[in-house]
Amino acid sequence: MATPPDVLPTPALAKTSAAPPATAPRDGAAPAGTTPDATTATARIVPRRRPGQWVSAAVALLLFAMVVNSVARNRAFQWDVVADWFTAASVMNGLTLTLWLTAVTLGLGFVLGTVLATMRLSSNPVLRTLSWVYIWIFRSTPALVQLLLFFNIGALYPTLGLGIPFGPEFLTVRTVNLFGPTLTAVVGLTLLEAAYAAEVVRGGILSVDRGQLEAASSLGIGRWRVLRRIVVPQAMRSIVPTAGNMLIGALKGTSIISVLAVSDLLYSVQLVYLQSYQVIPMLMVATIWYIVITTVLSVGQYYVERHYAKGATREGLPPTPLQKARAAYRRLRTAADAPPDGPGTAAGLPADAPARGAAR
After folding, report:
1. What beta strand segments (E) does the chain contain?
2. How confident is the model at residue 354 (pLDDT cuts 50, 70, 90)?
3. pLDDT per position as a tens digit, 131-146
4. 226, 275 contact by CB (below 8 A)
5. Which residues contact 257 (CB under 8 A, 6 or more apart)?
6. How far is CA 349 from the centre of its chain?
7. What is the mean pLDDT of the chain?
8. Which residues 6+ apart lie within 8 Å of 335 measured at CB?
9. CA-CA distance, 283 to 258, in Å (whole number)?
10. Residue 38: burial class (beta carbons within 10 Å; 0-12, 13-18, 19+)
């Protein structure tokens, strides 16, 4: 269909409309007549300003500096006394007993807790009920009450015997001679940790997809191999974080045995300040040691979690803090070794880069 002449643009008008208007360039924009390559070379990338983050960071640093200053300059802490007693023989002996007690009670607790978790997951209703009753009782009573009951077990059972039920006894021992303060602490804390460990292990086993077990059974893989190669590695992803919290809690929870006169870290410190009346510095000795050991255990927990997280994501494992520090150091070395930009350059390009782009 023919188009009316008044609709078609004239050649002069078409040339005029095709040409871009000659306007003054704005700040950061490319001037007229430059090519896209030159515009890319000379453009500056300005990061987004976040004043709220800087203000909050400044306030947080100010408060932290105030706390550090008050702690460092407060003479009531008596940091010289803390330094003198920090590695004393009595304190180190108490720390050794605390670490030993933590390792023994948590290790035995997880062994017994695994048995209890297996009973909870069993198809036998009697085993399930007994396991549930055990967990219910020991999680419902305070740890101090349990320790005091075991410490006074002689009032309930003066003697303990081994023999045939409702029949003769082959071995009899007096409870007072059997349960000392240290053994009472081991037994009481182990039974308490077992109740919590049972739920941790049971939750980890239930986190494994049931379809993987069915697939392994269809391939004819034995139960022991399924447990060792399929169930345990995946269950550990859920078990390790909670078990790490239990380990730290057990380390701090051992301080409760000081009521039984067991010479752990806290009781050793108490013996010192009851004689010297230096309560605050001796409590700071115990506090710093607890912080140091907890920090070491937290670092170990991080790497154990990282080990069992292999293959959990397609992106791979995130870098560790040490790897991040090395990468930052390499970037700093690269930036320091790079030649400095001369005047008139942009982003490390020669000064004549825009001219060459315009010539093209």
Report:
1. 159-163, 169-174
2. very low
3. 999 999 999 999 889 9
4. no
5. 101, 147, 181, 185, 189, 264, 267
6. 45
7. 80
8. none
9. 14
10. buried
Our measurement of the distance from residue 291's CA atom to the centroid of its chain's CA atoms, rounded to an integer in Å, reads 15
Lookup: tokens for 249: 């809690």
Distance CA 38, CA 139 (A): 72
Using DSSP, state whether 328 is helix, strand or coil. helix
Compute φ and ψ for 161, nearest 5 degrees.
-130, 155
Buried residues in 75-110 as b, exposed as e (16+ CB within 10 A): eebbeebbeebeeeeebeebbebbeebbeebbebbb
Residues 14-47: tens digit of each pLDDT:
444 444 444 545 544 545 555 656 555 677 777 7
Structure tokens at 301: 């927990």
Gap between the Cα atoms of 324 and 128, Å rounded: 48
Largest pairwise CA distance in the chain? 125
SS3 state of residue 50 = coil
